Amino acid sequence: MTADRRHRMTRLSRLVDGMVAPSVRERGFVISRLVSNWRQIAGDMAAWSRPTQLNLSRRGGGTLKVAITSGYGPIALQMKQPVIDRVNANFGYGAVADIVFVQTLAPQPSRPETPAGDNPAAPAPLAESIWELDARLERVKSPELRAALRRLGWTERD
Are both 41 and 69 inside the same structural domain? Predict the structure, then answer.
C-alpha cells in the first residue's frame, strides 16, 4: 500500500457491508445492503420488523420476506407499498415486487409504568430555578462536583 493511500478515510458502509455479508448470505440474502439499511428503509416499522429472506427473480420483481412481531400484521399490510418503494429506491431498480409478512418475532417486553418516587435509579427532576438548585446543592462538599451538578441542573432527592 502506498503512503498516500494509507491515511485516507474509509466509508463506514464499506466496512459494515463486509462484516454483515457472511451472516446475511447464510440467511438467503444476496445483497447485504438491505439488512444494514433496514432502519432507514422501514422507518418506524424497523422497531418491530426485520428482513429475513430476499428471493430475486430473473424477470425482475422479487419477493422479500419480512418477520414482524405478532399483532402488527394490519399495520404492516398498510405499509407494504411504501416499503416496497423504499427498498427499490435503495437498490436503484425494481428489485422487489411483493413483500410477505410472517409474524414470528417475539413481542417486545413492555416496561411497566412506575412513579418516579418508587424507582431509586430514576433521575431526579430538574430544579425550578437557579436559586432553588443552589439551595439543594449546599450539602455537596466538593466544589468541583457542585459546579458540575449545577451546570447539569441536577437536584438531590429529599
Answer: yes
